[in-house]
Amino acid sequence: MKFCNIASGSKGNATFVQTNDTLILIDVGISYRALKKQCEIMGIDLSRLDAVLITHEHSDHIKGLKTLSQELDVPIYMNPLSYKEATKNMGDILHVQEEEFIKPIVIKDCEISAFRHTHDAKYTQGFSITDGNKRAVLATDLGKVTDGIYKKMQQADFLYIESNYDLNTLINGPYPQYLKARIASQLGHLCNSESAQTIKNLVLEGKQRFMLAHLSETNNTKQLAEQTLMNALQEIKATKKDIELYIADQRMPSEVIDI
Ligand SMILES: [Zn+2]
Ligand SMILES: [Zn+2]
Q1: Which among 34, 101, 207, 227 is least buried, having the fewest CB atoms inside 10 angstroms?
Q2: How close is the Cα of 13 to the center of ligand 1, in Å?
Q3: What's the rounded Cα separation, in Å, for the pair 160 and 206?
Q4: Over the chain (259 residues), what is each successive 10-residue block's mean pLDDT?
Q5: Ligand 2 centre distance from Cα of residue 56 (Å)
Q6: Rounded-to-integer distance, Cα 8 and Cα 162, Å
Q7: What is the pLDDT of residue 106?
């Protein structure tokens, strides 16, 4: 199983998971043109795409979706509530399969399940994808890590987890008060320390591979996110050497990671 993040953050999100038989795109939050360009650079063949999964209808997750649906004949799995809201803003999207993920779905050699996040969209979900051998779990745009979400994370061989903001940077930053409150609420985003504490607990259980994601360009830096995580790991006498850490970028695709 391979994992490649193309873009991550409030200006757009797109991530690929690829198995022997299957190529899956999670979110189309950058323009289709930008996606195509990045795929060419990364050697990802979009004509082989088997499915698109949408986490939620915020524009940083669906900006390029309509054009993609016109260019590629590929099923797009969306929650019905997200779909309804998305069509209000962008009109008809082709090839959508309204899917509630009441049970896992199978696409070729992949089994995909979804779990609901607390976040201020009509419906927001994370995904857990396995080829029967390894499992990637993606969890961004969530206000808190509930017990249910943590249980999903415990199953991950590779966890893509939000580390959106540094609390002090947010408080002292330029955003208006209502937006600061929204981000920090349980319907907003995960801050560095929430993400770090979650990873710390997973490291205690033997998990090692993580990608910090959806970092705010205004209220966070990679250095702050990483330092907060290292401070949390210090509490359990772990260091950088004990984990394999990646940090997703808004503009630069990650390497293609073998899970
Ligand atoms: Zn987002
Ligand atoms: Zn969102």
Answers
A1: 227
A2: 7
A3: 16
A4: 98 98 98 98 97 98 98 98 96 97 98 98 98 98 98 98 98 97 97 98 98 98 98 97 98 97
A5: 7
A6: 10
A7: 98
Do residues 128 and 152 lie in contact, with contact meaning Cβ atoms separated by under 8 Å? yes
Q: Which domain holds residue 162?
A: 2-258
Q: Is the distance from CB of 148 to CB of 247 less than 8 angstroms?
A: no
Residue 109, pLDDT score? 97
Pairing state between β 23-26 and 51-53 = parallel
Distance between CA atoms of residues 79 and 57, nearest Å: 9
How many other C-beta atoms are found inside a 10 Å radius of the C-beta of residue 87? 15
How many independent structural domains does the chain possess? 1
Q: Within 10 A of 175 (CB to CB), how many other CB atoms are there? A: 16
**Cα of 58 from ligand 1 centre, angstroms:** 6
Cα-to-centroid distance, 128 and ligand 2 (Å): 18
Q: How far is the CA of 195 from the centre of ligand 2 (A)?
A: 16
Instruction: Tell me which ligand sits closest to the C-alpha of residue 138.
Output: 1
Closest-approaching ligand to the CA atom of 26:
1
Strands, sheet with 76-78, edge to edge from the N-terminal-most edge strand: 96-98, 76-78, 51-53, 23-26, 14-18, 2-7, 257-258
pLDDT at residue 209 in the model:
98
189 CA distance to ligand 2 middle (Å): 8
- The CA 60 to ligand 1 mean position distance, Å, reads 5
Q: What integer pLDDT is reported at residue 73 of this predicted model?
A: 97
Find the CATH number of the domain harbouring 18: 3.60.15.10
**DSSP class of residue 165?**
B
Q: Yes or no: say if 254 and 248 are a contact pair by the CB < 8 Å rule.
A: yes
Q: What is the pTM of this model?
A: 0.98
